[in-house]
Write a structure and sequence with these properties.
The chain has 16 helices and 6 strands. With 501 residues, it is an alpha+beta fold. A 6-stranded antiparallel beta sheet has the order 1-6-2-3-4-5.
Length: 501
Amino acid sequence: MATDMPVNSSIEARAVPEPSTTIEDSLLQSVSWICDHYGLGKSPQALTAGLPKGSLLSPSLALAALANAGFTAGLVDRRLYALPKQLMPMILLRKEQGACILLDRRIDTDSEKKSRYRYQLVLPELGNEPVELGQAEMDAMYAGHAVLVKPTARIDTRAGDQTPRPAGHWLFNTLWRYRRYYRSAAIGAVLVNVLALASIFFTMNVYDRVVPNQAFITLWSLGIGVAIAMIFEAIARYVRAYLLDVAGKKADLVLGSMLFRQALSVQMEHKPASSGSFANQLREFESVRDFATSATLATISDLPFVLLFVAVIFAIGGPLGWIPVMLIPLILIISIAIQWPLARTMKENLRESSLKQGVLIESVEGLETLKAVGGEAYMQRRWEHFSALAANTSLKSRQMNNSATGMVAFFQQFQTVVLIITGVYLIDAGDLSMGALIATVMLAGRATAPLGQVVGLAIRFQQAKAAMQSLNRLMDMPVDRAPGTEYLAKPHLTGQLTLKG
């Protein structure tokens, strides 16, 4: 049964038909019916609390409402006969009138065709009484999309919450939802780095075999082969970047909506005193998103292939492979050494930038009051003070990054010089060819290129790390409707007011 169940729901937009404009929201009523069926009475107001609902509930928001109500739900594109009976009841999307509940499906014994069925449904606009429709009527009504629903296990927390939410899981769980994109991008990274060896072997063979023998036919054969490899490498690079961009866009939409909903749901007594600092917490999500861009992830995916290039250097250059083996740890040490001072500096910069942003937002919001009391000079002094502090910490971080980048560039150039000098002696001894030396230099540059970018990633990593800590505090704030908490549903309130005396 698990194989029929889709992944957890999200608020991500899906290309499915939206309900038509009718007076009654049959999709919302269907979601409410599912909750009642499983003993989780939820009013329409409770189901849509915190969701950007318009006049009608959309299928994507229905998934979010079911998830908030304690269900695992997913939208699938299935034919009627392929819908799993063990997951009924389920919600069916209709072509013109919103949604309905599918209760059961049975073979139509009155029909001559064994492939025809009869379906038991609940149509929200007709009440909760089941109705039965034939195959032709269902084919005319069913839009081809169904919402499969399964209640999740609930833990009795009256003795205390024994499963605290781990910090940051709101981010990593969302990224894990799109793991198929990252898995495909990893396959693309393998193709990119393996195909990159083609141009290196082409250069080596041209210098060693084509030039001494004037073998022009071999030259053109090798040239055509390496051109094909380069075309496939370019395609693999594009596909990898596209997959990472798509995954980032999908995660960005979900995470941005999740953070904004959390900010709107925070209990007022726990809201930070400074509205500007509170707004800046949401802005810090940009640092996390920037670190998770396709360029950053592409660089990270290239790091494991450093070992591949070093192994190839040993294969064609022999003892020359020990030179990058000795220099690569030095580059890694530099990258690691700046992490601690950089982390401290970035935390200070994040705090000062937050205070600076708070001054800006509070000044703009209260500009009329500020002018009335003559507080412009005071706010100007605060702005300049926090701006100077933020500029100083930003300068420190850039200086550390520039120093580390300069040292890495020096070691990369030094590696090339040492490889050439050592290679000349090996050529003189007859242990190395000219083409192998050139290929070794190219491979060494390819091996250390991702490591050189690691230093550049250090600042973005520390920015994202500091922003994550701030966003975790936001996600840990108590909200008006805590997940897993049951609230009493009172759809109709009646009362009597009497004035005496």
